[in-house]
Amino acid sequence: MIREIIVTSYLLASVTLLHAQQPAADTVIVNLTNSTKVVLTVQDRDDISILRDYDFQQLFEDIIDKLERNDTTSILSNETDSIPEAPPEESWSADEEWDDDDDEEWDYKWDNKIGRTTQSFNFDLGTNNYVSDGKFPDSEDAAHAVRPWGSWYLGLNSVQRTRIGRNFFVAWGLGVSWYNFKFQKDNVIIEKDDSGIRFVPDEVREADFKKSKLTVCYINASLIPLLDFSNSSKHSRFWDGSHSFRIGLGPYVGYRIGSYTKLKYKENGETEKDKNHDSFYLENIRYGMRLQMGYRSTELFFNYDMNELFTTGKGPSLNAFSFGVVF
What we know:
Helix content: under 10%
Strand order of the largest sheet: 3-4-5-8-9-11-12-13
Radius of gyration: 29 Å
């Protein structure tokens, strides 16, 4: 068993085996147990950024599987395009002695497998608004005009990312999102009857109005084709330090699972919050297109609903959109 672990350690460090004429390298020794250690040698410090993209846990699992099967094939690196056939005299097994003078590089390419799928949990944070015939409602001083600051869009998504080609992926998943439309006029309320809804100011109460908003919650599904030049199956994060460009555009569809209005005001020295849960003739289905793009450590998104927010004839003709940052 100790011999197998030592072989595994050499496989992990094999990309750093040096010729005698090469300059000195940086070496890190990790003691796993009293009798087992991993030695990692880096000849070129530029490789450190490449090593950040490796899933070493999966690497060890692949190597141990090979040891258990006495599999002598190479594991490829991100920079290798095909599996070279090792000559019979260079093959090895867990029962053979390891040659310390062997300079062969053992490559690793688990991340480049076509069809490989990884999962991530993403968080969308941004702002939302809507347009009517390409115009913002505040251009006409409409009662339903919203404030960009304070009209927050939130999204929680479980996304599966499947490799289709070298730099081509499909991101598909489910999530839940919230539109928060904060009206510019703090005393706006939504009145509803059989003919539809109306946005009107509350001029009956003599109160100090603080906030008025409409919140709509959806459960969503999306399918986004992606080009990612990082050549990694994993979703890029702020803390990953990726230096690549990535872009994707695809459809989404959502189903409304809740909606309510909230009016906050101060009356007779007391802060009051009036909530009204109702459908408000909102469309139950939303569908549209999502654009997401990133460079280095930044990922942005833009969603545009192609259908209207309210049922036709029951409310203003509005198409909602949102944009922000993906975490």
